[in-house]
Design goal:
Elements: E1 3-7, E2 10-12, E3 18-25, E4 33-39, E5 46-51, E6 60-62, E7 70-75, E8 80-85, E9 94-101, E10 111-114, E11 118-122
Parallel strand pairs: 2-11
Antiparallel strand pairs: 1-3, 3-8, 4-5, 4-9, 5-6, 7-8, 9-10, 9-11
């Protein structure tokens, strides 16, 4: 059974950093793309970043809104994907979810399996 579990959310001041983790079980990164998405109240879900499968060289992709501030990383030994978020802004708060899919995309439709999400709050 494929499962994704996020952790690492919390409250941080503007300009601060957080590292989110997405622990996966039931599959490996060989053929699966892992994406990070976020959804703020009243807004549509937004693709933040994704990392392609190991067979596709683990290429990384970012939304323009987070490029240069967020970094996606994959640890094949721990079966975990991280989202390092630096220079957090007031517009970054949301529930952040990770998902697994077979296609590289920042759109949510191609993703088949989803975690429950972790809350990120940015406030002084």
């Amino acid at each position: 059974q494929l499962q994704l579990v996020e952790s690492g959310g919390g409250l941080v001041q503007p300009g601060g950093s957080l590292r989110l983790s997405c622990a996966v079980s039931g599959f490996t990164f060989d053929v699966w793309t892992i994406g990070w998405f976020r959804q703020a109240p009243g807004k549509e879900r937004e693709g933040v970043s994704c990392i392609s499968s190991s067979m596709s060289d683990s290429k990384t992709y970012y939304a323009d809104s987070v490029k240069g501030r967020f970094t996606i990383l994959k640890d094949n030994v721990k079966n975990t994907v991280y989202l390092q978020m630096n220079s957090l802004k007031p517009e970054d708060p949301a529930v952040y979810c990770c998902a697994a899919g077979r296609i590289v995309s920042l759109a949510d439709i191609p993703y088949d399996y989803w975690g429950q999400g972790t809350q990120v709050t940015v406030s002084s």
